[in-house]
């Protein structure tokens, strides 16, 4: 049986940390070590961790950063300090279901070619009450998307937007050298997004549809599903200025260009992956350079509508950006 590490990053987490630690302690399949990297907490976080360390039969290694690294870099170093063959990423403010480790470990045993897996999550509020929503529902990872993922479409799905929640992810330690350090391509592409995207290139990341954590949404979290799921409303599209619209499209274009240049420079990238990121780059280049004359916009927009680009790359209500490109 593979050894299990938990990589927990903390920062001023005293309010919710005890429940998370207790949920790790209560797992039906005991972990082999807990690695904690604290990013300069000024509350009772370290006291809580020391107390927990004395109460469990497995080792707890607590590392204090000399300076604040931020969430992504802190996770990066925490993962590298883990010795287990399977590493579970862990946020300080969630709660694990009792069988999380058991189910995910079994997944790896059934799927030896997969280097990572993520799960669904039950959304809870600041008080720990269920909202009635799940992460898969919130990010629109529905049955159609799940079927596409299983059919080898994970990379294309991830290009469209945020899907993998790091707090639900576990990875094999032996794949870390290919994932870390996290490249500085796009500011928003932090550790969990990069790990998922890189592994999806060769379809090496799977999912479990069952919620295996309670994911807490609250005001003080550094990153979260709410911030990554913002969409431009139909009203916004027709009330914002054209300069505002173009600045957002320009950002998408620059991000698509940066991703294309970086990934296409890596070794052993499949041709179909290069084709997808190149097409995405060209699509946002077209949108960023649409002329002011609305009639002249029709041919380039129609070309990408017929190619299915808006639906593939924008997702959701993909017809909205078509209307915006035509009329804004």
Features:
alpha/beta; 2 domains; 9-stranded mixed β-sheet; 14 helices; elongated
CATH top-level class of the largest domain:
Alpha Beta
Largest sheet: 9 strands, mixed
Distance between the termini: 58 Å
Overall spatial form: elongated
Helix proportion range: 40-55%
Reading the helices and strands in chain order gives EHEHEHEEHEEHHEHEHHHHHHH
Computed Rg: 21 Å
The CATH homologous superfamily of the largest domain is named: Spore Coat Polysaccharide Biosynthesis Protein SpsA, Chain A
CATH third-level topology of the largest domain: Spore Coat Polysaccharide Biosynthesis Protein SpsA, Chain A
- Seen as an oligomer or otherwise, the chain set is single chain
Strand-residue proportion: 15-25%
Mean model confidence by pLDDT: 93
Let me know the number of strands.
9
Q: What is the CATH architecture annotation of the largest domain? A: Alpha-Beta Complex
Structural class by SSE content: alpha/beta
Model regions low in confidence, pLDDT < 50 over at least 5 residues: none
Helix count? 14
- Number of domain modules: 2
């Amino acid at each position: 049986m593979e050894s299990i590490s938990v990589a927990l990053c903390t920062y001023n987490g005293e309010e919710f940390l005890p429940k998370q630690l207790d949920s790790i302690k209560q797992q039906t399949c005991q972990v082999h070590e807990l690695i904690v990297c604290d990013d300069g907490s000024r509350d009772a976080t370290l006291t809580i961790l020391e107390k927990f360390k004395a109460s469990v039969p497995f080792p707890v290694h607590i590392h204090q950063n000399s300076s604040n690294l931020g969430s992504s870099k802190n996770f990066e170093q925490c993962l590298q300090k883990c010795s287990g063959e399977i590493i579970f990423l862990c946020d300080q403010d969630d709660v694990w279901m009792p069988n999380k480790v058991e189910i995910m470990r079994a997944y790896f045993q059934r799927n030896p070619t997969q280097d990572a897996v993520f799960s669904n999550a039950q959304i809870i509020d600041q008080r720990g009450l269920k909202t009635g929503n799940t992460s898969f529902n919130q990010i629109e990872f529905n049955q159609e998307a799940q079927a596409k993922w299983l059919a080898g479409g994970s990379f294309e799905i991830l290009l469209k937007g945020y899907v993998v929640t790091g707090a639900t992810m576990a990875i094999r330690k032996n794949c870390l050298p290919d994932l870390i350090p996290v490249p500085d391509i796009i500011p928003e592409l932090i550790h969990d997004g990069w790990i998922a995207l890189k592994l999806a290139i060769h379809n090496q990341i799977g999912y479990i549809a069952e919620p295996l954590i309670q994911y807490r949404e609250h005001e003080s979290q550094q990153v979260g599903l709410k911030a990554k799921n913002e969409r431009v409303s139909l009203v916004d599209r027709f009330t914002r200025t054209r300069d505002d619209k173009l600045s957002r499209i320009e950002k998408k274009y620059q991000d698509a260009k940066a991703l294309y240049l970086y990934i296409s420079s890596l070794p052993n990238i499949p041709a179909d992956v290069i084709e997808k990121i190149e097409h995405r780059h060209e699509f946002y280049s077209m949108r960023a350079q649409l002329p002011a004359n609305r009639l002249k916009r029709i041919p380039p927009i129609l070309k990408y509508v017929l190619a299915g680009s808006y639906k593939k790359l924008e997702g959701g209500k993909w017809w909205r950006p078509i209307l915006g490109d035509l009329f804004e």
